[in-house]
C-alpha cells in the first residue's frame, strides 16, 4: 500500500494545473528544486510517470490526469474534514447556506422566513457566490447547504430536494431591437452578430470556444450587457439582479431549470435536516420569480 501525504498531493496539483515547475513553485511559495525532487519521489513511490517534462514546461500523462482528479477530491475531503470538525465544536454556530448571487431570490427569502419561524431553529448565514462555486464550498465544508440549479450545477455526491421549476430568459441591453420582443427562441439568441453570448468558465477554469466575452462574475456580465456587448440566457429568477439598462425576454424553447436544495450525502446534522424540511414544504407555494 502506498501512503500519500497531503503535502505532496498539493505539490502535484500545483504542477499539474500550472504545467510549469517554476510557476507552480511560485504559487506554493517554495523554490523549484525541492518541488522537482518531491514530484520525482512521488513518481518513484507510485511506480508511474506523472508528467512528461521539456524545456517549455510539463504535460500530464494518462496516469497524471487520473492522479490530478483523485488528488483534488482527496484534498477537498481533507479540507472539509477540518472545517466541519471546527464547526461541530461550536454548537451555537449558524447554518451556512450558499447560493449564487441574484439567483432564486424570492425562494431564498421565503425559505429564510419559514425556517426562522421554526421552534429552536439556528440562525442561517447566507453566503453569496459566483456561478458554479456552490459545489466547491459544500465539499470544502465552508457551507452546510446550497441552493443549486439542475442541469447547470455539479450535484455529484450531494443529496438534493427539488424545490421549483422555471423557464429561462434572455438578458439583453434595453436598447437592442430584440428587447422589444415578447418571446425569443434559442436559435434567435444564439445567432445575434452584435450580441455574442457570454462565456462562463468550465469546472477546470478554461472557457468554451466562441466569440462572446469571457466573464467570471455577475457584475462583469451585468455591465457588459448594459454596454451592449453581450447577452445571456439565464433562469427567470435571476432577474433579481437585473439593471434598469437590461430587459429580460422569455426564451420559449430553452430547457427548464430546476432549483434544488443540496447538502453533503453523509450529513447527520439535525439542523440541516430541519432546514431541508422547511425548504421542501415550500414546494406547494407559488414558484420563485
Automatic annotation (TrEMBL):
It comes from Saccharothrix syringae (Nocardiopsis syringae). One of its GO terms (molecular function) is DNA binding. It comes from the Bacteria. Gene3D superfamilies: Periplasmic binding protein-like II, Winged helix-like DNA-binding domain superfamily/Winged helix DNA-binding domain. This is LysR family transcriptional regulator. Keywords: DNA-binding, Transcription, Transcription regulation. GO terms for cellular component: protein-DNA complex. The lineage of its organism: Bacteria, Bacillati, Actinomycetota, Actinomycetes, Pseudonocardiales. Belongs to the LysR transcriptional regulatory family. InterPro entries: LysR_HTH_N, LysR_subst-bd, WH-like_DNA-bd_sf, WH_DNA-bd_sf. Residues 4-61 form the HTH lysR-type domain.
Amino acid at each position: 500500500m502506498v501512503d500519500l501525504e497531503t503535502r505532496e498531493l498539493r505539490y502535484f496539483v500545483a504542477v499539474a494545473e500550472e504545467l510549469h515547475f517554476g510557476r507552480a513553485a511560485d504559487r506554493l511559495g517554495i523554490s523549484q528544486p525541492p518541488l522537482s525532487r518531491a514530484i520525482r519521489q512521488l513518481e518513484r513511490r507510485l511506480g508511474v510517470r506523472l508528467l512528461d517534462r521539456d524545456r517549455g514546461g510539463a504535460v500530464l500523462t494518462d496516469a497524471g490526469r487520473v492522479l490530478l482528479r483523485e488528488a483534488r477530491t482527496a484534498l477537498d475531503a481533507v479540507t472539509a474534514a477540518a472545517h466541519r470538525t471546527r464547526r461541530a465544536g461550536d454548537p451555537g454556530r449558524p447554518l451556512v447556506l450558499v447560493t449564487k448571487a441574484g439567483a432564486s431570490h424570492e425562494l431564498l427569502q421565503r425559505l429564510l422566513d419559514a425556517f426562522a419561524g421554526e421552534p429552536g431553529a439556528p440562525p442561517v448565514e447566507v453566503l453569496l457566490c459566483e456561478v458554479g462555486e456552490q459545489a466547491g464550498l459544500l465539499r470544502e465544508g465552508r457551507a452546510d447547504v446550497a441552493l443549486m440549479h439542475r442541469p447547470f450545477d455539479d450535484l455529484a455526491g450531494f443529496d438534493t430536494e427539488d424545490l421549483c421549476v422555471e423557464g429561462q430568459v434572455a438578458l439583453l441591453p434595453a436598447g437592442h431591437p430584440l428587447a422589444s420582443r415578447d418571446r425569443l427562441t434559442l436559435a434567435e439568441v444564439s445567432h445575434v452578430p452584435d450580441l455574442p453570448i457570454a462565456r462562463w468558465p468550465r469546472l477546470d477554469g478554461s472557457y468554451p470556444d466562441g466569440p462572446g466575452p469571457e466573464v467570471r462574475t455577475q457584475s462583469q456580465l451585468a455591465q457588459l450587457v448594459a454596454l451592449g456587448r453581450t447577452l445571456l440566457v439565464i433562469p427567470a429568477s435571476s432577474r433579481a439582479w437585473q439593471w434598469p439598462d437590461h430587459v429580460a425576454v422569455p426564451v420559449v424553447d430553452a430547457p427548464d431549470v430546476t432549483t434544488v436544495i443540496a447538502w453533503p450525502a453523509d450529513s447527520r446534522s439535525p439542523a440541516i435536516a430541519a432546514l431541508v424540511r422547511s425548504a421542501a414544504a415550500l414546494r406547494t407555494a407559488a414558484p420563485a420569480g
